[in-house]
Amino acid sequence: MKEEVLKTAKDMLRKGLVEGTAGNISARMPDGSICITPSSVDYEAMTLEDICVIDVDGEQLEGERGASSEKLLHTAIYKAFDDVQSVIHSHPVYATMFAIARKPIPPCIDEFSIYVGGEVPVTEYAQSGTQNVGDNAVAVLANRGAALLANHGMVAVGPSPAKVLHITALVERSAKIVWGATALGEIHQLPEKVNQDFANIYTGYMRTAP
Ligand SMILES: [Zn+2]
Question: How far is the CA of 117 from the centre of ligand 1 (A)?
Answer without folding.
Answer: 23
